Amino acid sequence: MFLCVIRQKLSEKSGAVVVLVVFALTALLGATALVIDAGMVYHRNVQLSNAVDAAALAAIQALPGAPALAQSLAECYALKNGVSADNLNIEISEDNHEIKVEAKSTVNHLFAQILGINSTDVVKSAGAKIGNLSAVSGAVPFSIEAQELIYNEEYVLKSGSGGGKGGGGQHTGWFGALRLGGNGASNYEKNIKNGYQKEIAIGDLLEVENGNMSGPTTRGVNYRIAQCQHTPACTSASYVETCPRLVTIPVVEPCGKKTVKVKGFAKFFLERVDGQGNQNNVWGTFVQLHTIGEMTEDEEADYGIYVSRLSY
């Protein structure tokens, strides 16, 4: 009799244990689904985020001049990061100054299907924009007046009194040279050779350098051209971005007889210096370049030197 009671109690407890085990296994499977499947979604989120960031930053380097190339670069970088063209959407703004890249993916779950959740859609987007450079260091002491500049065209960066396209020769006694960090021929020549190392910003007022200054101009420009040691030699159509022949020039507007106001900055490839005295001209080809620096929202400062950043 006593043994029968014991067997009955054990049988009752075994049934309770089975129920508890079932509930425990269900909870364990749920936790496994949460950890593994949520981890898969998180991992895909990170992958897509990196993919759209890389695609946007690569593509923006081709804007504003080559939107078709920007589209191709975005697709290429997205593909390298595991996003197919079918799951990619690329939008370029009308002014070619901004790009949006959106990618999507479906993550198929493993354990969460037990709970009726078969998959999760992941969508990530990134935008990048270009803006104009607000300040520079290393500018050379030449200038060009504010105007619409045409890529791959030659301009006079410092002219003799004969003037020239884009030059400053039309202003009495001033031929486009700037007085940066002090006066004197030696300081002027040094700034041509090495660039003026202090910062110049949009809105700054700069003193002009009077006279032809043909000797220091010729020596400084020829020195700078000779510093290009690249093979093949750089040209305006094909150059190394760190080449000494690439110079930054303030774009200015006259502000009185002895000062000019900085409206922006442009990049030129130094072609040559020719002539003496009032026939002494420095020629450069206008180029477009992306660089690193602070961005200004001033749309009037658009003279071909661009900085880029992710916009979201």
Describe what you observe in this structure.
It is elongated and about 105 Å long. With 312 residues, it is of the alpha+beta class. The chain has 2 domains: 128 residues, Pantoate--beta-alanine Ligase, Chain: A,domain 2 (2-Layer Sandwich), CATH 3.30.1300; 158 residues, no CATH class. Strands 5, 6, 7, 9, 10, 11 and 12 form a 7-stranded mixed β-sheet that branches. Strands 1, 2, 3, 13, 14 and 15 form a 6-stranded mixed β-sheet that branches. Strands 4-8 form a two-stranded antiparallel sheet. About 2% of the residues have low confidence. It contains 4 helices and 15 strands. Helices cover 31% and strands 31% of the residues.
Fold blueprint:
Elements: H1 2-60, H2 67-80, E1 88-92, E2 98-108, E3 119-133, E4 135-136, E5 144-145, E6 154-158, E7 174-179, H3 185-194, E8 200-201, E9 205-210, H4 214-226, E10 246-254, E11 259-274, E12 281-287, E13 289-290, E14 295-296, E15 305-310
Parallel strand pairs: 5-10, 13-15
Antiparallel strand pairs: 1-2, 2-3, 3-14, 3-15, 4-8, 6-12, 7-9, 9-11, 10-11, 11-12
Give me the count of strands.
15
Number of helical segments?
4
Q: Which value, in Å, is the CA radius of gyration?
A: 33 Å
Main structural class: alpha+beta
Low-confidence segments: 164-170
In terms of DSSP E residues, the strand content is: 25-35%
Number of domains: 2
Sheet with the most strands, sense and barrel status: 7 strands, mixed
Order of helices and strands: HHEEEEEEEHEEHEEEEEE
Rough shape?
elongated
Indicate the mean pLDDT: 87
N-to-C span: 79 Å
Fraction in helix: 25-40%
